[in-house]
Amino acid sequence: MLLNNDLSKRARVHAARLDWVASPTAGVERRMLFRIGDEKARASSIVRYAKGSRFPRHTHPGGEEFLVLEGTFEDESGEYPAGAYVRNPPGTAHAPGSTDGCIIFVKLWQFRRDDLQPVARRPGEGRHQEPDCGQVSSIILFEDAYEQVRIDEWAARASINIPNARGLELLVLSGGITEGGEELSRWSWLRLPPGEALHARAGESGVRAWIKSAPLLHETVCAF
Fold first, then answer.
1. What's the CATH number where 88 sits?
2. Which of 19, 39, 155, 185 is 20 to 30 A off residue 105, Cα-Cα?
3. 59 HSE (CA, 13 A, CB side)
4. DSSP designation for 17
5. Which residues form the domain of 23?
6. For residue range 40-90, what is the model confidence (pLDDT) as tens digits?
7. What does DSSP say about strands 127-128 and 119-121: parallel, antiparallel, or unpaired?
8. What is the pLDDT of residues 176-188, one digit of tens each?
């Protein structure tokens, strides 16, 4: 499967409007945003776990990065409520599931080969930086020489201007923005190629968004 695989072009998906698609594991469904491959794939998706659903234990040779959107995600390392952010480096393994059900935003097979740093942020954890004009808050969840991942919140009707030298992804967590003449509401996903800055305006209730500034595919990305 190829979905939004041309990284030289902008991509926009209103994920909340998509149908849920069943995965091979009972009780686990997906809304796909980006994909190169079939079940083994470089992929960005929103994934829903039904109550009591669980994946068999498996390894992530290409790494896994996820943000919990609703409910509580669980694996051997603990419980992760809504707002938790986790990076499982290449070679890590777990048996994920959810007792009461959850929804996560997850990126697979997109780590660099040498990115071996595990990260587990609880809701609200991270490095708080001074907000820019119009921002309510900005919390850096992860940062190294290659990428920065953060959660930003802007006030109602604030102008949003983010330079983009490396590549940019944005997932609306709450509220909304207007970008390119189109409204992006909760769970809308936007990907911009390097050099295309983000110019948007927050909605009437402001916006909270997950943002990644990084190459859209690292030169040393883990190989299949």
1. 2.60.120.10
2. 155
3. 5
4. G
5. 2-121
6. 899 999 999 999 999 989 999 999 999 999 999 999 999 999 999 999 999
7. unpaired
8. 999 999 999 999 9
Contact status, residue 110 vs residue 62, Cβ threshold 8 Å:
yes
Q: Say whether both 200 and 161 belong to one domain.
A: yes
Region for 170 from its dihedrals, namely left if φ exceeds 0, alpha if ψ lies in -120 to 50, beta otherwise: beta
pLDDT for 132 equals 86
Q: What is the DSSP string of 173-204?
A: EEEEEEETTEEE-TTEEEEE-TT--EEEEEEE
pLDDT in tens, 124-163: 999 999 998 889 999 999 999 999 999 999 999 999 999 9
Q: Is 24 exposed, middle or buried (0-12, 13-18, 19+ CB in 10 A)?
A: exposed
Distance CA 162, CA 206 (A): 16
